[in-house]
Design goal:
CATH class: Alpha Beta
Oligomer: single chain
CATH architecture: 2-Layer Sandwich
Number of helices: 4
Strand order of the largest sheet: 1-2-3
Length: 106
């Protein structure tokens, strides 16, 4: 008997492929969603936020478009806000197993 009170033979019925949680998920969806969320919270006109996606093998390139009046807010002083956004999105991509990069388009 296992610790869970189940007979040991029931534990052998698990299919190792069931552990793969990637299934039908879209590659790069998490970094894209994170970028959209952050950008919409920073800008004054969240409806103008558009994220374009280019996918490669284990790589995703995201292009962020915002209203011209909001460019300064997204970039920040000395580019610090933009760099912070890139860091968070890169981490979200790494968690998903893809390399994510952000380009802010004017």
């Amino acid at each position: 008997m296992s610790d869970a009170g189940l007979p040991d033979e029931d534990l052998d019925d698990e299919d190792p492929e069931d552990d793969d949680d990637r299934g039908n998920r879209v590659v790069g969806a998490v970094p894209q969603t994170v970028l959209e969320y952050l950008a919409r919270r920073i800008v004054d006109d969240p409806d103008s936020v558009v994220v374009e996606v280019s996918e490669g093998r284990n790589r995703i390139d995201l292009r962020l478009n915002v209203a011209p009046d909001d460019m300064g807010k997204v970039i920040g002083r000395r580019g610090r806000t933009a760099q912070a956004i890139r860091t968070v999105v890169r981490a979200a991509g790494a968690r998903e197993g893809v390399e994510a990069s952000v380009d802010i388009v004017d």
